Amino acid sequence: MTSDVPTPSNDMAAFRAVLASSRRIIAIAGAGLSAASGIPTFRGAGGMWRKYDALSLATPAAFRDSPSRVWQFYHYRRETALKAEPNAAHFALAEFTIPTIREQIAPGSTFTLITQNVDSLSPTALDAVLARTVATMSDDEKHATLIEMHGRIFDVACTEYGCKRRDDIRDSPLCPALAGTEELVAAGANEPDIPLDELPRCKACGALARPGVVWFGEIPHRVDEILTLVDQADLCLVVGTSSVVHPAARFAKQVKEHGGRVAVFNVDRTKRDTDADFLFLGPCETTLTKTLAATSDES
What we know:
The protein has 299 residues and is an alpha/beta fold. 32% of the residues lie in helices and 15% in strands.
């Protein structure tokens, strides 16, 4: 029996025609965007964490139960992100945020990149593009084009309710007690149990600090703004995400439900492909770069 669900198109020329006629464009990015930069996907952040479900370490409850274990997990992720550089897909999206560049591809359009990634590679790419471009942008435009809905891995937040101190800290390691813990576990050694007073502390009040990312069960940053953008979008690019983490998992479907178009850029098929009008399989640093180029060889 054949399915009534239409197969998404991989016609690049047809998609670029849709892109050119779109006026309110958003992109929802996930871990696949950073794969070519050496950042493992969240569920594949394995290696030293083979014996744990990575998802179970990204919750307030996990931090209450074992701050030592959670901080070691995030130390591993911080160290990986510190060594990473943006790849071609990051730069393609960053360039698309520049009005004079985007005008050549999608005249009269607006664009916002909404990333679920916490590795800071998208803002790094955007800063580099802004530094080398002759385009002039107001401060509002620079901030409005990129939303890091799950925060940044380098943010360190105080756990004391009355303090609320948050700092961007890129020290390696973040504190002496975390140094080398990823190597110990990768070598098969038992997980160190680091005393609370040796874990990262708030610079303002001295209380225990936590990774300043959005954990499961917490509210994403700028969620009201994101939902408004989703409601207004006439084109949604889904980049490097399996669309299983809410609320982002529903964004493409919501765009589709109000008559917008959806284009998916992923290495593999996912169950959310049924929401797509276009599907481009392959590394997004290849497919996305070709798609968002001011000129494209569509042969």
